Amino acid sequence: MTKTAIITGGSKGLGRALAGELVGAGWRVVIDGRDGAQVRKAAAETGAVPVAGDVTDPGHRRQLIEAARRTGRLDVLVNNASTLGRTPLPVLGAYGLHDLRGVLETNVVAPLALVQLALPLLSATAGAVVNVTSDAAVEAYEGWGGYGLSKAALEQLSNVLAVEETGTRVWWFDPGDMRTDMHQEAFVGQDISDRPEPSTVAPLLRRLIEERPPSGRVRASDLTESQPR
What we know:
Blueprint lengths: L3 E4 L5 H12 L3 E4 L4 H11 L2 E2 L7 H12 L6 E4 L17 H29 L2 E5 L12 H20 L4 E6 L6 H6 L11 H14 L4 E4 H6 L4
Parallel strand pairs: 1-2, 1-4, 2-3, 4-5, 5-6, 6-7
Helix pairs in contact: 1-7, 3-4, 4-5
């Protein structure tokens, strides 16, 4: 039976590139995003199933799971949707707590909520969870405190989930810097054209999903180094 993936934040950037990779490999892919027109455009161009909405909305999360359920199975949940929070990025000493709660809701609470809904389907297929993280989770960058602490929480969430759900693979995947809209928001007015395109990272993530190594933290650069020559 054809495998099915859910990719949040699949209307642009890495999520969209991965959707195209998986559809091209014969997968059924459900994508979402807050901009309905952009989600539909990405779906038309990649062959994915569009479900527009915000991952912080419980009703939308249920819609994503139901879209997968209608295909008959779910093999991979990719928690890719993310937010930087307020930009320009504020230092922690001036970080609005309301803003921080919003970052945590999108980057930590919503992924866990989706995992909770998806686990029964993933358990049936010995499936996998991919939580997209960042080097900001493990390195100290000025101004990246809010985003970084949310990704650190996501990594520990993943770490514990991997111990608790031994029948499901759990990877926290660090793609490295990429030329995305979100990265541009972090570097207002700066040229980020030297960063790799998401289309160069998506094949590595597809490889991770298809090869199914043990659960753990995986950097895109690790996969690049281990490619056969």
